[in-house]
Amino acid sequence: MRPNQSPVVLWLTLGDQSIILGSDLEEQTSDSRRGWSVIVDSMTKPSGTVQIFKIPHHGSENGHHPRVWSEMLVKEPFAILTPFVNGRVSLPKRGDVRRICEITPSGFSTTSILAPQQKKRDTEHWIERLKR
Fold it and tell me: Rounded to whole angstroms, how far apart are CA atoms 130 and 18?
């Protein structure tokens, strides 16, 4: 898959609650003017921490930036994941789900996380194992 060249990340505050909608922003190691590092290091981003996080890029590793979780979000935020399946491409991967479950016990998915051709029972089994 090609990198997303112009994703829009939104920080919304409603009363005392905030949410970051992570879009499909990826960490761009090849270009220091793009990706999560630019946002985390920005002097113009809103101050404070966010309680709800729409996980970027379907939970994939290239959408993850540890400093977003440690500096921009409350400890154990509500995290919303939107899985992606297109043919043989499926996100998130098992390791991605494991990583997210290790960061927050309040992670949710908008749909069942099924790899193509994978039985629902098998998927539920590994998701339960990762939560332990």
Answer: 28
Q: Where are the alpha helices (DSSP H) in the chain?
A: 36-41, 66-67, 94-103, 120-131
State the helix-helix crossing angle for 120-131 and 94-103, rounded to 10 degrees. Answer: 30
Place of tokens 């939107």: 82
Q: What's the CA gap between 91 and 82, in Å, rounded?
A: 9
Say if residues 59 and 90 touch (Cβ distance below 8 Å): no
CA distance 64 to 36: 8
- Which is nearest to 18 in space by CA: 27, 5, 7, 9? 9
Confidence grade of residue 83 (pLDDT, cut at 50, 70, 90): very high
Domain boundaries, the chain: 10-131
Q: Over 60: is that where the pLDDT of 16 sits?
A: yes
How many angstroms separate the CA atoms of 38 and 76, rounded? 23
Element (DSSP H or E) covering residue 20: strand 17-21
Ranges 62-66, 71-75, 116-120: which has the least confidence: 116-120
Secondary structure (3-state) at 61? helix
